[in-house]
Amino acid sequence: MKICxxxxxxRLITVDESKLVTGFQNLGSWLNTTKxxxxxxxxxTWSAHDKLKIIWKSHLYRVYKVELFRVTVESILLYGSxxxxxxxxxxxxxxxxxxxxxxxxxxxxxxxxxxxxNVYGKxxxxxxxxxxxxxxxxxxCWRSNKIVKDLLFWEPTRGKRxxxxxxNTYIHQLTEDTDMNQQDLRKTMEDRQKWKxxxxxxRDQKTxxxxxxxxxxxxxxxxxxxxxxxxxxDCLLWIHRTCLKTSVKEMRTLxxxxxxxxxEALNRDSSCLARYPTK
Length: 279
Known about the structure:
- The protein is mainly alpha-helical.
- 44% of the residues lie in helices and 8% in strands.
């Protein structure tokens, strides 16, 4: 596809001054195909991720690293993702890239043999996040009274399709995300609450992660019931005794105290929960 690009302010120019290009950048997104835009997003995400290496290599608590990662790194990867039409290959690439970014941010090496379930914790897959953002934008556009409502389900009535497999369109992407036809999509989008319920449901039950019940906020490993551990009364995350580098005697003393890891203000009314091995 070739696009005729004019000057920035769309002034009248002659044909000789125009330039034929295969795509161009507008508002930070590359307007040609989803694949090219994803390539640009991934490159910019890794660049932003590498600038924070000093933080990822530090001994900062996991809860802080995750919040910083999702604000500074994930937001760059998801910029303009509401308009993406993803194939299975692009979905796998995005999920794989996000996993590598998250492992590097949490300073988890492949030699640590950590499962993705323990690495992610309560963080959803990036493909699922993109699906929810795309459906949320589509519902907002459909309920508006602007021209975007007419363009949402627009399909060309003229022309001839090229040979080979057709590219995935935005309409086909919405039907794939919700398992609905176009008529059901229009009816469901009219009701905001029903559409929210559709967005909140998982696309495939097989993709739901079996999250670790009690991931340690320092090493990200699961905190089982047969090891010494303690729970923060603010973030409710468990931490291994060995990660805290405390003795068994100190752990017994902490049972009668409200223990905080420093994640929030000390203004909650709750008691400390210390867990120790059962006989």
